[in-house]
Amino acid sequence: MFDHNLNRLATVQMPELSTLVGHPYMAVDRPCLYNLLLSMLPLDCILFNKRITNVNEYIGGVSVSCGTEKDVYHGDILVGADGIHSAVRQILFKRLEELQKLPEEDTETFSRGYITVLGTTRPLNPEKFKNLTDSYSDFSQVYGSKCPYTWSTLNVRGSRVCWSIHSQVDASASENQMFRRTSWDSQDSHDVLKACVNFKTVYGCTLGELFKETPVDGISMVFLEEKLFKTWHFGRIGLLGDACHKMLPSSGQGAVNAFHDAIVLANLVYEYQPTTAEGITTMFEKYKTERFERIQKQYAVTHFQAMVQYGQMVLSLAQRTIPRLTLLIFFHDCCLGFKMPDASLYAYKAPPKMGPDTLDLEDVYI
């Protein structure tokens, strides 16, 4: 953690992480991770360019329509893992509203209080940019003292740097902006980038120099949304990941908990192999029971940390006046304070892998 002038505020090292979770950690970019996961599946397991238009439950199964009468798929259950704006959830909730079984809080809009601009550079010259030859990834976060921004950087394999800029916005204003447009244009992100070009980074350069090394089509600007739904399943339809609990990225728990959801649900499917409506309901209830309390805790912690990291409003500014203390308290309570039995440790109990027995990251790295 650094202030605007790169004066160090705090450093958090986690030498006990391997003991805590049972394995070391590594930083990996999304394309590499996607290729790794895809390589473990038969090619015909995933269908691309499909859009769900309707879901129909019937005695003994559920069908998914993707636009035409012939483009229909059948199964015992449907799991929506399609993100915060999940089409599966929208169809499910519409049906529950018609049955008057949808909790009122699940009809409320997402909380939107922050925006972020992010990107990943091309491979950089280690002679020009510092700290790129380290064997480990170094995540740094800089708190702007005279501007409404917090910016983060992370060096990844291939001498590249992932960067992001965060800012808190008025919730009602962000709601109006979301209503007026379906996507950001280049001018929106350009305004933020222009305001941040001279901000310092730990790589001996400014953010502006990182922007120049980033492909234009690789820069994104999004609202950071959060929402914890009470409804995770009904009938033969279930939800996981952001589709039922969208967290802010402040503590890096979104993807982690989506993985945990998938592991728990997959284990229950293989353990119970339900086909009846009653058996499927029982399985989904066990899944939510095992995951919901943990998600509630992570959701609250992530919300608080976002105020500390990105906040600019009165309450958040007050919390940011003691960033060293709040950060250390956060890590103690959320990581180092866990005893092994209390940590989220899940073992995948599914049948043997369908893909190759061994895989080298070199084979899937882009």
UniProtKB/TrEMBL annotation:
<dbReference type="InterPro" id="IPR002938">
    <property type="entry name" value="FAD-bd"/>
</dbReference>
<keyword id="KW-0560">Oxidoreductase</keyword>
<feature type="domain" description="FAD-binding">
    <location>
        <begin position="211"/>
        <end position="297"/>
    </location>
</feature>
<dbReference type="InterPro" id="IPR050562">
    <property type="entry name" value="FAD_mOase_fung"/>
</dbReference>
<keyword id="KW-0274">FAD</keyword>
<protein>
    <recommendedName>
        <fullName>FAD-binding domain-containing protein</fullName>
    </recommendedName>
</protein>
<dbReference type="GO" id="GO:0071949">
    <property type="term" value="F:FAD binding"/>
</dbReference>
<keyword id="KW-0285">Flavoprotein</keyword>
<dbReference type="Pfam" id="PF01494">
    <property type="entry name" value="FAD_binding_3"/>
</dbReference>
<dbReference type="InterPro" id="IPR036188">
    <property type="entry name" value="FAD/NAD-bd_sf"/>
</dbReference>
<dbReference type="GO" id="GO:0004497">
    <property type="term" value="F:monooxygenase activity"/>
</dbReference>
<comment type="similarity">
    <text>Belongs to the paxM FAD-dependent monooxygenase family.</text>
</comment>
